[in-house]
Amino acid sequence: MKILATGALLAFLGGVGLAPAQADEIFDFDGELLEDGAPAPWEVRKVAGVPKFSVVPIEERGGEKHLYLHSEQSSFSLNRRTDVSVPKGTRVSWSWKGEKLPYGKAADARVGSKCDQGLQVLLAFDNGTRLISYVWDTNAPVGGKPTTEGFGINFLGLGHIVKVIVVQSGKSKLGQWSTIERDVVADYRSVYKGSPGKVVVIRVQSNSQYTGTEGAGYFSPITFTHPG
To answer: Pairing with 228, which of 13, 113, 118, 203 sits 20 to 30 Å away (CA)?
Structure first.
């Protein structure tokens, strides 16, 4: 994890007691590759099929390492344990480039038995029992009512609830980089009410097992920006 100051001036002012230095928390894919190919400390979690992924430097993005996931009738994720405080105003952001989305009318986040998305970023709160899944869906529109996944899988050994928020939809931007930025606390309150605890796990995922199709794309490092 990289922690980057937002400005030398803020850091200086913080040093003299006038204002605290602010920093972004960045969760990247620069770690040493483990035996299964995951960049430490990310861990692979398989639900169905064979996980296919790699860490790829993207020349057009300054050579920064990105994570590439490719699901073929499969479901898997890479997970990273975290300890991120999310006071009001905290934002999470990342960029992704979709190559393939689970195709056909069957793939739809609004239908639990057809809830396949080629690209997903999930945040786990409250000791892993509550999750928000930000997805690029094939058919469900952006801005629709958040849905609850129609199935449950233990997360960190605990039962959990997953609320799905569609942040990108359709095939029109396949092959292009898109940047997603979300207000973490506002999203949490919209689906769970109350205030979130810390983000304890970040999950990057691809699903295509229900539709029996494919999903693929690239993910940048994930950044939390805290309020000034």
So the answer is: 203
The tokens for 105 are 């009318």
Q: What is the model's pLDDT at position 160?
A: 75
Residue entry with tokens 């359709």: 170
Question: For residues 185 and 183, what is the distance between their CA atoms, to the nearest angstrom?
Answer: 6
CA-to-CA distance for 150 and 108, rounded, in angstroms? Answer: 12
- pLDDT > 80? residue 224: yes
Q: What is the 3-state secondary structure (H, E, C) of the chain?
A: CEEEECCHHHHHHHHCCCCCCCEEEEECCCCCECCCCCECCCEEEEEECCCCEEEEEEHHHCCEEEEEEEEECCEEEEEEEEEECCCCCCEEEEEEEEEECCCCCCCCCCCHHHCCCCEEEEEEEHHHCEEEEEEEECCCCCCCCCEECCCCCCECCECCEEEEEEEEECCCCCCCEEEEEEEHHHHHHHHCCCCCCCEEEEEEEEECCCCCCEEEEEECCEEEECCC
Burial (Cβ within 10 Å: 0-12, 13-18, ≥19) of residue 134: buried
- Chain Cα centroid distance, residue 7: 26
- Its sign, for the CA torsion 115, 110, 143, 139, is positive
Backbone angles phi, psi at 222, to 5 degrees: -105, 130
pTM for the whole structure: 0.86
* CA angle, 151 then 132 then 113, to 5°: 25
Determine the Cα–Cα distance for residues 65 and 221; give it in Å rounded to an integer: 8
Give the Cα separation of 144 and 165 in Å (integer). Answer: 8
